[in-house]
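Worked example 3. Consider a protein that binds NAP.
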Amino acid sequence: MVNVGILGATGMVGQRFIELLADHPQFEITALTASKRSAGKKYRDAVNWHLETGIPEAVKDTVVVDTDPSEVKDVDLVFSALPANIAAAVEPKFAAAGMKVASNASAMRMEPDVPLVIPEVNPEHLDLIETQQKNRGWDGFIVTNPNCSTIALTLTLKPLYDQYDIKRVYVSTMQAVSGAGYSGVPSMAILDNIVPYIGSEEEKMESETLQLLGDFDGESVTPANFKLSASCNRTPVIDGHTEAVFIEMGEEFEVDDVKDVFKGFKGLPQKLGLHSAPESPVIVREEDDRPQPRMDRGAGGGMAVSVGRVRRDNVFPENLKYVLVGHNTIRGAAGASILNAELINEIM
Ligand code: NAP
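Given these inputs, the predicted complex is written out as structure tokens:
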């Protein structure tokens, strides 16, 4: 077993890490960190637990420590669920102390020597680890996963991008409140409401998606060469991001072929049989009114993205439209980091 720590273990994503790692066949949680407010307390006293599964017995009495490498002993790998500004300062210290860091935070994602990876999409970008260690003189390293709405979108774009010429992508999101963290959006702001702004979210989707689909020449990544424009909205859904996707195709397509491309999509995690890999990363729904967050966020244990309403646009017939739902704290956060770590564990 690999001893792992969770940085930011008391937050929304931290709790998902604990839930998903509780019975993991390769990783054993041996350290939990959070802010100084929580350090020194037993996990059950420090956390405001909100998942239906309850706090796993194995961590209830674990004492939370400060988020500092000197406090995290005998750990090979840490999963980071820290706020971006804290991650920027702290994650490099963990990597410098020799630990592998699988991070959810945006702080290091667009650094040219830090792999931004979805295992089904661009596992080859993990080769940047060698460059990173050389550049920075670290024994450990940092690997990141993208932002939650980007992961769901890119999992559906990857099979299309491999098969068709894509000219432009427009995406409108309807994002769950859990994406903002436990105290992120006050109930008075979101109940009976939609908020048409999520700070930096559109910029992250627009840059991270192209980076993930970009060409890697062994040393650096050249972003994919199409245009993507995002409009991001917060909606009163607890978990599960919905996205309405509109693609200007550069070549002829048939809707049934597009569905087959989604259905046939498998990546390296499926080939390797990684523990957290869903059987099919993209599931096609044929019902007129699916996917929906409440019905579809749990698909593939929360690791699959559900796609529906796959259709040709009536007004612009050269264009493709569909709607997707992905679980933002599982496939979009904790599950994404865990799958990255499983892949690293398998191939490195
Ligand atoms: P959250 O609920 O606000 O949790 C933040 C965690 O960081 C808590 O454990 C908190 O500990 C800890 N923390 C706060 N300030 C700290 C400090 N100064 N030093 C050390 N630890 C500190 O946030 P979240 O939603 O879990 O998000 C965590 C990260 O994942 C963010 O970077 C976010 O952007 C990213 N992310 C989130 C989602 C999502 O769907 N929620 C998806 C993708 C990526 P205390 O309890 O002690 O304050």
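Take a moment to read the result before moving on. The first strand starts at residue 2 and ends at 7. The chain has a mean pLDDT of 97.
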